[in-house]
Structure to design on (411 residues):
């Protein structure tokens, strides 16, 4: 079996680094990138701020407490998504096998590029130099035989690092590595494994598989492999991913709301955003899921309904979401709302039989074309004109990708 050579490239403090490069006055200073709304947390911080104890997810007042000289910068999502897209274009100069993991992370399979460039380290240094020259920012690179270990390696030297894990290094590196450092093991899984007296990757790899499957089911086998540093998952380039299972949007509100009119207006916004993306990629769905998080932050619920027919018209998605909402008595003011369309199928647009439906389709197509040219929500429902500035998403979702249906229009 051919040993693969995988790079994981992680941009260092990406949002903050882009802002410091765009504004020389911010360079060398502790900055925190925050949202533009009244309710926001620190999205990321520069390494100067991190040295003072500023962390992602902190409330602004917490950041100011640990770092009084902290400079707040309202994030510019379009700037970050543009830069991310251009960086991924650089990656494809060295291999067509590029998988964007998030806006600031990508895997590259360079196994078949080594004959051209000589070594993985050479490719890594070339990429690092081009990113620094083109954008003035740095990245950390991990090189390993698989995706799991490459991501682990890229975290080992930051910022601007380069770490290589060879097949012979795996057992030594993993022996004392905390399990939380493995991609895919979150806080809850870490806690459950700790309760089994498993704290390091070495201990996870030595644990009997039956004990893990008895506790976690089929995922136990995968955990065993992770502890041994085994990962056969391929790097999946854009266009070769599994079919998207759902299209969704959520919105954390500027303030908690309990006014039914306001709640319905936000649901219409979200339904239009979901419908627009679904229509753009010629998918429709039968299942609509409504998600609500209350003002206390900890209490939330989700309910769904499945229709007889597949839909992608925004008003139909909206009516389905309203039908779900009507079955629930809201116990508190609402902090977050989400709408998702699933049970998807890909289909070519068919001309409706009845004239009223054809008029509706033509109007929707015209609105989509205008919005594609002039920006999302350039043309929208009249009821959304009030408070229009809050229509766009202010947070880049974890599922964002530079291309395809997961490329959410952000602002």
């Amino acid at each position: 079996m051919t040993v693969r050579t995988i790079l994981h490239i992680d941009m260092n403090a990406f949002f903050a680094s882009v802002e410091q490069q765009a504004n020389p006055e911010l360079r060398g200073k502790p900055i925190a990138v925050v949202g533009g709304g009244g309710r926001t947390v620190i999205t990321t911080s520069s390494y100067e701020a991190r040295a003072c104890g500023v962390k992602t997810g902190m409330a602004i007042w917490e950041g100011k407490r640990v770092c009084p000289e902290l400079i707040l910068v309202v994030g510019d999502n379009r700037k970050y998504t543009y830069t991310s897209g251009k960086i991924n274009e650089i990656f494809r100069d060295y291999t067509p096998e590029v998988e964007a993991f998030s806006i600031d992370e990508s895997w590259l399979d360079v196994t078949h590029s080594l004959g051209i460039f000589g070594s993985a380290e050479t490719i890594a240094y070339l990429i690092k130099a081009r990113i620094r020259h083109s954008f003035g920012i740095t990245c950390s690179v991990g090189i390993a035989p698989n995706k799991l270990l490459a991501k682990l390696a890229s975290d080992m030297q930051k910022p601007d690092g380069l770490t290589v894990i060879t097949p012979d290094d795996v057992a030594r590196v993993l022996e004392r590595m905390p399990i939380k450092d493995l991609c895919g093991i979150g806080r809850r899984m870490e806690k459950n494994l700790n309760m089994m007296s498993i704290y390091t990757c070495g201990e996870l790899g030595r644990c009997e598989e039956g004990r893990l499957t008895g506790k976690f089911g089929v995922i136990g086998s995968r955990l065993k492999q992770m502890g041994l540093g085994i990962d056969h998952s391929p790097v999946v380039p854009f266009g070769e991913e599994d079919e998207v299972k759902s299209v969704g949007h959520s919105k954390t509100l500027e303030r908690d709301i309990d006014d039914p009119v306001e709640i319905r207006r936000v649901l219409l916004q979200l339904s239009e955003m979901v419908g627009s993306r679904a229509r753009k990629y010629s998918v429709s769905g039968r299942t609509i899921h409504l998600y609500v998080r209350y003002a206390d932050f900890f209490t939330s619920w989700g309910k769904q309904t499945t229709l007889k027919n597949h839909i992608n018209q925004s008003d139909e998605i909206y009516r389905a979401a309203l039908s779900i909402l009507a079955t629930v008595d809201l116990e508190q003011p609402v902090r977050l709302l989400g709408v998702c369309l699933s049970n998807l199928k890909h289909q070519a647009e068919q001309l409706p039989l009845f004239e009223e439906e054809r008029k509706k389709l033509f109007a929707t197509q015209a609105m989509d074309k205008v919005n594609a040219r002039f920006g999302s929500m350039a043309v929208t429902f009249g009821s959304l004109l009030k408070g229009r500035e809050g229509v766009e998403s202010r947070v880049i979702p974890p599922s964002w990708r530079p291309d395809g249906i997961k490329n959410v229009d952000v602002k």
In short: Confidence is low (pLDDT under 50) at residues 387-393. The chain has three domains: 1-165, 170-227, 246-390.
